[in-house]
Write a structure and sequence with these properties.
This protein has helices at 3-18, 22-30, 45-52, 54-73, 87-106, 119-129, 131-148, 151-169, 175-191, 193-201. The chain is globular. Helix content is 68%, strand content 0%. The protein has ten helices and no strands.
């Protein structure tokens, strides 16, 4: 089979992986609830935490990260694309597969094309491609979350740090990788338009970090 057809087939598989609606399936299987009908109406980990609690939210978050990581790793089924001989080509194909998974998460074929915002899946693919950048973005997310308790603001800050760290911290030179980082940051901001409006209006929900138990 021609390499182009193999890449196309794996890209479709990556989309299907991303389309696994973790939040929807966990909510319906264990709670009899469609999370898209509660909270923010989003089929992602943040709304799962809000609607179904910490255990369900953590499970959905982990599954969404794994989706992106696994999709980017599908490149390893293409021995013709050698990361040592042609690192840029290898990364470009990883980006294609990772983006396919993110699109699957945003528009899941298994859940009526109504999915989440893709942050966890994007983070998973970034771990597979360049884990140091993923670590920097995670640090930014955690710091912003501790300072503001706004998950949306923390997600957008981490997304902006993605291309910034590629260019100014790690001095990467792959044009498509940098372009993808910029586009990903823009996409994250666009998918958080309602959150931005709520932040401006002062009615965005805050995360409950270190929730205290009543005795």
């Amino acid at each position: 089979m021609a390499i182009e057809l193999q890449i196309l087939g794996l890209a479709v598989l990556a989309y299907l992986l991303g389309s696994i609606p973790s939040a929807v399936w966990v909510g319906e299987a264990f709670f009899g609830i469609d999370v898209r009908e509660h909270g923010s109406g989003n089929a992602g980990a943040t709304n799962t935490f809000r609607v179904l609690g910490k255990k369900a939210g953590t499970g959905v978050l982990a599954m969404d990260v794994v989706k992106g990581f696994t999709a980017a790793c599908l490149v390893n089924f293409l021995p013709e694309i050698n990361p040592v001989l042609n690192k840029t080509w290898f990364i470009n194909v990883q980006l294609l597969f990772g983006l396919s998974a993110v699109l699957g998460h945003l528009f899941p074929v298994f859940a009526g094309f109504k999915g989440g915002k893709g942050i966890a899946t994007l983070f998973g693919m970034l771990i597979a491609i360049h884990w140091l950048t993923a670590a920097i973005c995670l640090i930014m997310f955690v710091c912003m979350l501790l300072l503001t308790r706004f998950v949306s603001l923390s997600s957008m800050s981490a997304a902006i740090m993605f291309p910034v760290s590629l260019v100014w911290i790690f001095k990467r030179h792959e044009p498509l990788f940098i372009a993808f980082g910029i586009c990903a940051a823009i996409l994250v901001i666009l998918t958080h338009r309602k959150n931005i409006q709520r932040l401006i209006n002062g009615n965005e929900s805050k995360a409950r970090i270190l929730k205290r138990h009543q005795h």
